[in-house]
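Input for the complex:
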Amino acid sequence: MNVVFAVKQYVSKMIEDSGPGMKVLLMDKETTGIVSMVYTQSEILQKEVYLFERIDSQNREIMKHLKAICFLRPTKENVDYLIQELRRPKYSIYFIYFSNVISKSDVKSLAEADEQEVVAEVQEFYGDYIAVNPHLFSLNILGCCQGRNWDPAQLSRTTQGLTALLLSLKKCPMIRYQLSSEAAKRLAECVKQVITKEYELFEFRRTEVPPLLLILDRCDDAITPLLNQWTYQAMVHELLGINNNRIDLSRVPGISKDLREVVLSAENDEFYANNMYLNFAEIGSNIKNLMEDFQKKKPKEQQKLESIADMKAFVENYPQFKKMSGTVSKHVTVVGELSRLVSERNLLEVSEVEQELACQNDHSSALQNVKRLLQNPKVTEFDAARLVMLYALHYERHSSNSLPGLMMDLRNKGVSEKYRKLVSAVVEYGGKRVRGSDLFSPKDAVAITKQFLKGLKGVENVYTQHQPFLHETLDHLIKGKLKENVYPYLGPSTLRDRPQDIIVFIIGGATYEEALTVYNLNRTTPGVRIVLGGTTVHNTKSFLEEVLASGLHSRSRESSQVPSRSASRR
Amino acid sequence: MASLDDPGEVREGFLCPLCLKNLQSFYQLQSHYEEEHSGEDRDVKGQIKSLVQKAKKAKNRLLKREDDRAESGTQGYESFSYGGVDPYMWEPQELGAVRSHLSDFKKHRAARIDHYVVEVNKLIIRLEKLTAFDRTNTESAKIRAIEKSVVPWVNDQDVPFCPDCGNKFSIRNRRHHCRLCGSIMCKKCMELISLPFANKLTSASKDSLSTHTSPSQSPNSVHGSRRGSISSVSSVSSVLDEKDDDRIRCCTHCKDTLLKREQQIDEKEHTPDIVKLYEKLRLCMEKVDQKAPEYIRMAASLNAGETTYSLEHASDLRVEVQKVYELIDALSKKILTLGLNQDPPPHPNTLRLQRMIRYSATLFVQEKLLGLMSLPTREQFEELKKKRKQEMERKRILERQVVLESQQRFEERRSDLASRAANGEVVSLRGGPAPLRKAEGWLPLSGSPGQSEDSDPLLQQIHNITSFIRQAKAAGRTDEVRTLQENLRQLQDEYDQQQTEKAIELSRRQAEEEDLQREQLQRLCEREWEREREQFRAASLHTRTRSLDFREIRPFQLEPGREPRTHLAYALDLGFSSVQSSAAAEPPAPSSALEPARVWSGPPALGQEFFPQSMISQQNELASLNPFYEEDPSSPTAGGTTSPPAAEHSFGPSVSILKEYNPFEEEEEEAVAGNPFTNPDSPAPNPFDEEDEHPHQRPSSPPVPGNPFEEATCTNPFEMDSDSGPEGEEPIEEELLLQQIDNIKAYIFDAKQCGRLDEVEVLTENLRELKRTLAKQKRGTD
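Predicted:
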């Protein structure tokens, strides 16, 4: 159930099967991302893969002394490129791997193009998704829906990605979906269709309890992606943005050239692997330790290298030292930038109010706090807008709802129209009317007691008190208490036992906060393994883009000024 | 960086629950609380404390993952089993699904290629025919005749326009025939094939026949074989002078095909420099991969002061390996600079390739060369040897200590056992129902003291050494660090072993528990039987005395009913394994020196316990002419004079009672769970075991002194399973249970990896049982 490992194994197998000799890896845009998530350059170099080329690159030289490993998505363009390639082969021999099911006719046309018999292998290796963490995958699709319905192209891509995931993990699951979402139902049906059609592929060793695929829709919980995060991975994504493990630091003031873009990968960065789920305070102290460690190991100029023994020790520690110096400067820079942003944007205070909006039900205090923050000049328009969004989502139907007043405040603060429109768009996207379940007020006795106890105890950390709605859903699922009238099964058969292997997919994107939740569930629930996926992994910014892309026009009181853009889309 | 200078900025987590004041750490929070709110509700305070502790604990668990071997028994367990598993630790998975289209692909390609190859072959055969004769010395008319015979020419009338360019043929624009396919084209569209070119193609076809079996074409077999068919062309190669008329007319299509063919031939023959260099480079790397581990082994051993390898040999090897590294460096540099001075500079991709190769070679060298530890100089080596000697000395002392300790413990136990035995005797004679008292007395004895004594000194030692290592590291004495680490590892191994032992002991105790229960049941039956027994009291006394000799025999039959092996083999086997086990417990302990003491301390106390077992086996072996059965009636005297071999065998049980290391543990991993073999060793079947018969067996057994043989069969330890949840056990046992569970998990993992699926099943079963027991216990303690 480790998705990183699953993809890595595929790539390793490809390289292994091609035998010794210099190799070139021929990929398309998407597979480049897929491979780069699981293999680092130096790692793959050691396997004699020296060149990485895009199949669509025209500037490739004939190098008959190289073997080509082609890892491509089975798209029409790729097949065409490959046909051209095979007609005039640039490399001595081709090992072709498609990341998903390819049609027989495509195979035929490829075969007919291979007049020089350079193809030695044609296989389907189902690494058709971005493996972010062992339990988290993404499809890097932003804007998967038009209104409430799928963009057809994205639906087919999502179906492919999800079925590839199932195949790579060798799971033939039962499917449940969120009834309130049409998109979830549609995706569930598409996945089922593929499973039925490719039934031969999905014949795996039966497990006692069949795996379960749960398909959810982001609309059900629009709160989570709007919150500021305080665990390392989530925070970096929220404040700096993680794109295929890469972080763009070019906007950081005074950044050195080689740190413009850094890679944060848990696979080969021990510090990151150990700290990605810790909160910012802990990271602070850990990075301090890392620095101290580094300073200890760092040779103190020449004077300490006097004796030969010293030099020897230095040389022996050198590779480690070098690696460490890279890690140190990277994390110091990242954490430093985070900390700068936190104080610059007054995020501690903002986050506190966000959490209050998300977790508590005290309207007047919340309103007061939001108002107070809107007056604060340090609070950016982005954060101001998101506070109002949270307020709007939570107190949408509250009797003394004072959203118009807050909107006024936003306008007075000088928040751009784009953000002000987004407030109503977000409510349209994930408001009460759309939600299949209640985000804010607990329904059953257990939840009520829990909240009561929470209030009694006080919260451990005000900034991380929010639990994504997904936690509750999964908790119920694990305990076999997830209601079938809200999350029905697709097809007649139902699961009698408690599920063990669970794949959750969120249409409209997952978040790193949810990834952390799943990580913790995995750690604390024996016998249960959960993998989380989404059309993408959101931070607030990308989530707002997603909302914008879905083109839901505002229906709120301000609807007089419907964004012309979304209107024209219809 | 700001976060480092100003931690207050980031430590947002410690808010006073009463005044919501933000404090920097939980210590500060605590003191703040004590100062400000000390008068207020106490409960809240307690809550903070527990909260703080929780946070601390969580933090600890997250921050330091290593270095807590001592706690791993409890903490590590929590994260492993009560909790699920960190996704990073999910068990290894197989390769995902794959589907091959190769056969389909080949089928389609073959259909296509056959056509293509036939075309090429046809052309080449014709070309050969066209060049087969001496063109220069033949009249053109004759040439034309021959040409026409090779391929039928298309009729001029049929082709009014040039098929390639569409121009009308006329007197000016004359028709030309392709000599290879017979088609017609105009002069503009006509191509010419020179004789050398033709020669190259035809001779290459011939060559390919001879070369295509050579291995140079590695996995590219597709390539060679089919081309081979082209080479069916018979050979002709005439050396020709070039003349004006030496060219063969042909159409563009045929020429294209031939050019493609030529390209293929060229590529096949041509090996670029980079490939040659690269192959050399790879060879060197392979050599390093072979030699480096060997050297590292040598160097490690030498640095540890061992004398297994000679210093000269090692330094020779070092020089050799270093030379290879230099070669790798030189080769990769050469690759890097290939073609840089050529006039048309190489394609950027070529340069990139060269850079990458160089980079990977550098990485390789960096990683491996720097891992190549240095050798000690001669003087250092001598010093090291001395140091090692001291180390050994120290170890020996340590071992002796351990031995002494265990002896002491044993002594204690013995005296206890003795009293117990005496007590048991009384009870058994009385036949009174006093099993409960025994249970009370027994458990703590076998459990707590042993454990705490066992673990403490070792752990201390481990801690000491860890701190030594730290000091040595700080002082930069790497050699010393290494030896210390070696030492540490040994200690840790030992510690692990002890943990296993404890686990084994646990299962033993479970068996014991069950015995007791069973006994209680049997008591009822026994009353009846006791009456009859009165009559045989004298005889039973006799049995008791006899038991003295059974105890020596007993190890031979430790595993009755397991395998029909000969007793002698068993005796040897056991003797051996028990010695081994003691050695394992205290590495190179001079176990022989200890033997007498144990032998003599063991039997008197234990004699009775073994009684039933020996009875079983004897009963079992009655038919198979048990050699020891003869001894059985041979009066008490035989028992008194413990013959040397017998004494040695009795060492086995005494060791196991010491809870050292179960000799059978090695034989079957899965047995650890509820290791049935530990049961016989366990002192559990206390002195009363002889009366400890199974209820339903009872009626059948004749009430004669010989009946213990019969009865004992039902106490066959192999029939007891350890799953019985021993209720109301001490908390220590729970810890042991946890360890046990951990062990089993490890075994399951191991078994899974090796693909022993049946074993996995058994183990999982065991695991489940253990977990159930644990849960039951938990409920009990709550």
